[in-house]
Amino acid sequence: GGYLGHCQQHIKSFLGEKVKRVLFVPYALHDRDAYARTAREKFESLGYGLDSIHESCDPVEAVRKSEAIFIGGGNTFRLLKALYDNSLIQEIRKRVLEDGIPYMGSSAGTNVATVSINTTNDMPIVYPPSLQALGLVPFNINPHYLDPDVKSTHMGETREERIRQYHEEPNTPPVLGLREGAMLLVEGDKATLQGVTGARLFLRGKKPTEHEPGTDFSFLLTDSNLQN
């Protein structure tokens, strides 16, 4: 569908009527002006104003004044480097975890909401000072998760094999593979899988498990022993 078309009703129910303007973070793409125009057109069609953080002379102050934050997709390394360069990691964490404003992430914006960007699909085209991300949830996500194609002649690793390699390292958190059309709604201590395609959950040292839309993933938010 069109930009955010598959989830626009979820956006409206998530942001609600209290939010009037959304702060958009277009750092994951090179052409920030064009990206902001696309996002602004969609959010205005849903009844929300949109301010792009790259247009602000003080990004930190923009976050502090924001009613809701949306970080869009693109290259995860470029995005995370820009968040560090603009001193926004702790500011966004505070607004979301302490002040309770809504946070939305798409693709790379989902990756940076987790513990780290170790499970992104992107190439490291730039070098952020750390792979540690916003840590809004205590696990990692692999957006655009792809199941193996049994007919493929591709000899490289499948997505599942790459996540297994990640879990060969010690103290690595769970990874939730979100397919196209899947969303994770986190409210307080409750996490629910939404969308139409389902997800695959990877826990270190265990076989991956398949989950349908509607699954309660709240245990991922609270069980610190999962990574062990």
Automatic annotation (TrEMBL):
* Organism (species): Cathartes aura (Turkey vulture)
InterPro entries attached to this UniProt entry: Class_I_gatase-like, Peptidase_S51
Task: Supply the name of the protein.
Answer: dipeptidase E
> What do the Gene Ontology cellular component annotations say?
cytoplasm
Gene3D superfamilies linked to this entry: 3.40.50.880
- The organism's place on the tree of life at top rank: Eukaryota
The alphabetical list of record keywords is: Cytoplasm, Dipeptidase, Hydrolase, Protease, Serine protease
| PANTHER family for this protein | ALPHA-ASPARTYL DIPEPTIDASE, PROTEASE S51 ALPHA-ASPARTYL DIPEPTIDASE
Family in the record: Belongs to the peptidase S51 family.
Q: Which GO terms describe its biological process?
A: proteolysis
Function comment:
Hydrolyzes dipeptides containing N-terminal aspartate residues.
Instruction: Recall the GO molecular function terms of this protein's record.
Output: dipeptidase activity; serine-type peptidase activity
Q: Does the keyword Ribonucleoprotein apply?
A: no
Question: Pfam families from the xrefs?
Answer: Peptidase_S51
Q: Which NCBIfam families match?
A: PRK05282.1
Q: What is its main location?
A: cytoplasm
The subcellular location is: Cytoplasm
Q: What is its EC number?
A: 3.4.13.21
Q: Which reaction does it catalyse?
A: Dipeptidase E catalyzes the hydrolysis of dipeptides Asp-|-Xaa. It does not act on peptides with N-terminal Glu, Asn or Gln, nor does it cleave isoaspartyl peptides
Q: Does the keyword Protease apply?
A: yes
